[in-house]
Design a protein that fits this description.
Chain A is mainly β and about 230 residues long. Chain A contains two helices and eleven strands, in the order βαβββββββββαβ. Chain B has 15 helices and 16 strands. In chain B, the strands form five sheets. In chain B, strands 5-15-14-12-11-8-7-6 form an eight-stranded parallel β-sheet. The chains are: A mainly beta (about 230), B alpha/beta (about 450), C alpha+beta (about 300).
Amino acid sequence: MRTVDLAATPLRELNAALHRLTLETNETRWRVLNPRGAHAVAVGLDAPVRVEIEGHVGYYCAGMNKHADVVINGNAGQGVAENMMSGRVHVIGDVSQAAGATGCGGLLVVDGNASARCGISMKGIDIVVKGSVGHMSAFMAQAGNLVVLGDAGEALGDSIYEARLYVRGSVKGLGADCIEKPLREEHKKDLRRLLEAAKLGGKVDVAEFKRYGSARGLYHFHIDNLGSY
Amino acid sequence: MSDPKDGDRWIHTPPRKSATFDDAAIAEIRRAAATGIYDIRGAGTKRKLPHLDDLLFIGASISRYPLEGYREKCATDVTLGARFARQPITLKIPITIAGMSFGSLSAQAKEALGRGASAVGTSTTTGDGGMTAEERGHSSLLVYQVLPSRYGMNPDDLRKADAIEVVVGQGAKPGGGGMLLGQKISKRVAAMRTLPEGIDQRSACRHPDWTGPDDLEIKIHELREITDWQKPIYVKVGASRPYYDTALAVKAGADVVVLDGMQGGTAATQEVFIEHVGIPTLAAIRPAVKALQELGMHRKVQLIVSGGIRNGADVAKCLALGADAVSIGTAALVALGDNDPNLEDEYRKLGTTAGAYDDWHEGRDPAGITTQDPLLAARLDPVLAGKRLANYLSVLTLEAQTIARACGKSHVHNLEPEDLVALTIEAAAMAGVPLAGTDWIPGRGGY
Amino acid sequence: MCGIVGLFLKDKALEPELGGLVAGMLATMCDRGPDSAGFAVYGAGKPGAVKLTLRGPSRAALEPLAQELAMVAGTPVAPVLRDTHLTIMVPAAKEQAVRDELAAIAPDVTVVGTGKRMEIFKEVGRPDTVAARFDLAHMQGTHAIGHTRMATESAVTTNGAHPFTTGADQCLVHNGSLSNHNAVRRTLVREGLRFETDNDSEVAAGYLTWRMREGLSLGEALDASLADLDGFYTFVVGTESGFGVLRDPVACKPAVVAETDRWVAFGTEYRALVDLPGIAAAKVWEPEPAKVYFWERS
């Protein structure tokens, strides 16, 4: 276990050390102390290691993550796990806006709440939020799954493409071209898989969720849809 | 028209068209009424604007001495990114290839751009679709764009790039996102952008995970951390408020500012955007340079100017006004073969003519450049087209050197505003140089 | 674009430390606002008296003023001189006379703020330097708001620095960029307000002043601003009894609030709050868009 105390070590050294790890590294467990809201902690990781961060982080923690398993024992500022490619990011507290933004793969789990624009422009990432998500979540979401155990704010899935949204609580409002869709057996199976991956297997009844997705009305421009633009 | 005969009860004046409701305006109204959709096209502003042509160099005479061509060197190299990057980029010529996406251009066109640029020692730039293997393979220096859409964005390509360009906007559509019609979302493009094939692509106008220069600063810091501070980071803006935008890009931590005037091209956007939003390249340069000078950052943060650069005189004028380099987009495509007069019959079939073809979003380019159609794209031989681009870039460089030598400069960067005069009052005011033959710079000295 | 900090003390025992805590918060926001800084501190008042914060071109220009203004005030004015700012305390009834005298004898000295308890300080320069010049670290009080500025479209001048005062004991700081401030300014000028800069934030402050002059409470004025002001903003306003927060409906500009039983704090980034006592156990959350929040002493 390598421990790095950001009160004593510059962030540059931590990230540089993490970037030097190869796929075959045996330095697979790292602990980061005293992040104190710092930005860009553990960004650009590219190795199958586990990084545990003790405390609140600022923006873009675990940005562009590949392969790594990052745990944030605190809250995360905006853009946590932005553009993640693979691996796993688990935030034990709350996350600020744009969580998982443009993520292409991997799994982001938030134990607390997410604020605005959760999963904005997501491109294949799976996001599971145990609390609620704020307004404009899944805006222009292209692919991947967003699972929300709590509520969703205004304009959920505005301009959505092919991502799938599952919300157990209430939805304050749906965005342009986002509609409720039937929750069929294949979706329940997917939901179980996602909840299992988020270590909620068996704890939540998938039948309590509603599914939301694209009406595909904006896929080809028609002047009658002008109000949606 | 013969004169009215005696006895005619009604005498009409000859028909007279309106300058306001001219043929183009009437045609556009009719088109809008028929289709119910705004006009979308590629390229940049087409109407006449104050431009670099309205400036002239004052060459050597009795008080200034020229340099001999060929023997007495006029250097053209430029280094970009020394402010923060561990590995700044050095270009042999101060002309780069602007960002254009694979998706708007064919793979062959991207390869040709890479070949041509590499042959003369300069860089190409990816576009709103990500990095292709062809471009990375054939470009010795490749700048990777980070756009609001983040299509194709990934850390591997970020690390493979030689520089990173955060795109806030572009000259054709500052403030625009917009919509691209489905024809060009081919299978390969769809896969790279994670979109269904053949649909209309809606584009975001703001970045998803930051808004404002204070948060851009934090985003740039993240990109540096991911790439271990190796690579120069550029910030690109469409010319709008160049003085403030340049200052803010510097404060946000940019190594290089890329400023794209309204003549800058696009793959596709609304015609009203192209023609009516943004300011001319000529009007944008001095305010940007002024911002750099006031911050003590001129030449420390480099300025790359684009939007309507066509010849070596344009290059030299931008440098004289204070830019460190220029970037070309439309001109590069023309060099490859876009709007080739030899294809006139095909342009006619598309309802247009060589030199006017701009419906690039339809993907039916006879030259095989702005298309994903495999048969059309195969018409472009990347090796030959790359050679044409290299030729053109060499001519731009030679022309700029010729002018610089005539002004007595041993390096093109030693060109300065005082080497220029203006032909019109607008150009004099915008460029901050006197009207030819006078001392007058409008706006200075209170009048 | 900018950084905002705010600190409201619930525990009186922390009042002597207010300045030190706020100075630390301000320092972390230097990077996102390197051009200028300002802060408003709500310290001790005196019944029947009004505090004025004056800003002059130099210390020397301010030094002789205290005596001259005391003659008009009819009583010593308890002057405190900090770099380019001078705070004086005058009987409320004499405030106008003192202002008139000031305008007559020192036209290049401006009144940056007035109130029973509010003092405002602002200058061009790096925020940590600015704070040191005014010795913020040793100021005391019940609450304070502060601002670090990265100028977007107006000049980097002291006048352009925040906070902008909107009335006695009231001031505003802003992070974001308004898009219709020029039109709003013209309306407010017709209503009799005066502006010294091209700054969008000054317009927001003027808008609130105007609304309150027309009879709205501060909370109602902030609610009204949601319809009348266009653009992106996080506003933090200071009043005699506390401070308020409002984010625009799109809410792209960040905002973090932390609360313990000893204080409530606001920061543009969580980083600004890390050195507050008890932060580890604080409740940390983000204000919702388009909702006015207020914390005050009862």
